Amino acid sequence: MTIRMDEGAAELLDTLHRAGYAAYVVGGCVRDSLLGLTPHDWDLCTSALPQQVMELFGAQRCIPTGLQHGTVTVKQSGALYEITTFRTEGTYTDGRHPDEVHFVPDVREDLARRDFTINAMAYNEKEGLVDPFGGQADLQSGIVRAVGVPRQRFTEDALRILRLYRFAARFGFAIDPPTAQAAQELCAHLDCVSVERIEEELAKLLTAPAPAAYLDKKILLVILPELSSEALAAAKPVVDACPAGEQALPIRLAALLLAVSFALSGCSLVKNIGGSSAAGTKTITRPAVESAELQFTHPAAGEPVAVFDTTAGVFRAVLFPEQAPQAYDNFVGLVQAGYYNGLTVTRVEQDFVVEAGQGADGKGTTIWNGSRYPAEATDKLHHYSGALCMAADSSGKCASVFYIMSTLPGGDSITQELTDQMNSAGYRAEVVSAYQTAGGAPYLDYTDTVLGQVYEGMDVVDTIAQAAVDENQKPTETITINSVSIETYQAQ
Fold this sequence. Notes:
single chain, alpha+beta, Beta Polymerase, domain 2, Cyclophilin, 3 domains, 20 strands, elongated
């Protein structure tokens, strides 16, 4: 494999190599070249330290644009090229910039700090492609995937969450499910990103050929909190109907701002699903799911069910002890001890989840003196709407905190993007089909524990899911769990 090198970049690499330094073109120029596109910029990385770069090319040709981060801009053949020393990065106290950098001799260490695999490739003519994280394979498969641990990448720099959707939209790629999940879970950290950088990334996303599928509801509601889910749904086809490119950006942006305007005025661009019920609460019509998947073929006579009696009403969930034995033992043990009785719903994200189970410490507990248990993932249980799940903490372990998926049914939560992601990730056709009907959040699969499935009273869950909340997503009017009990299902 060869890349048609930019003449100026090739000359700079040759000079660095003749001086005894390792050097490569890196990042976007490699990615675009492999895609058959013409790169706009050619960036270089090298083992040479910034001062050595400046000595090699001379003060007249060098601009010390970012010496603290190892970057020198060099004039070559009438153009400007950034040359950056191989580096690793320390902690990110502000969630955007590294507190310190460390220069290193190996390009692979440098690539490990980058955001996505498709941007973590380097090249020179002697060595060819350096691709330690499978970026070329992801390009061929059409996937945007974080380098290493997704949560770490987004914790380091929250702006990468928007860049994820921007790159996926630009190339029409699917998003790797674990990467999407981490972005969803950490999107609240976008509040540490400047308005200017958010505007820049959003603008780039909106210039993509068909960006609507990548206008993720949860992400956008962080940066445009006035934008309702319904208004966004109405704006998406308008956005895609506009021509692609920078010239259409004002029109596409206007479509989103119009949706915000409607939301602020209390008007709706679309009708509520199933019509409206009392007090501004919409009635959500959930279709019956004809599926052989475990969650939709049970309960059967004699199986354990959990009965949740709340101030909003009663709902029931079948439990799956064989698939989640530790979660089951802990949950049932806590129920029998009366732990959940009197607790309140502590988190509501409309059309996403309803969460409870936190004790006075806000962390929850277990029947094993507080010792947590690992998440129990299985291909037999998934995060369909109505799934009863035990939440995992940052270490991947669970306790008493549970949530119920309240995502909207069908295409209102399972976009074509998510369908493509599931197919790319090898999901069984039966699972994809069940998600397409029931709705849900497949990006949460194989992380938290699915313990059960609500089979009666989902309308109660939907009512709770629409409660008004404060800035911490806690209902402004208390919703109490009067009691939880374990019963044996009796077939009608």
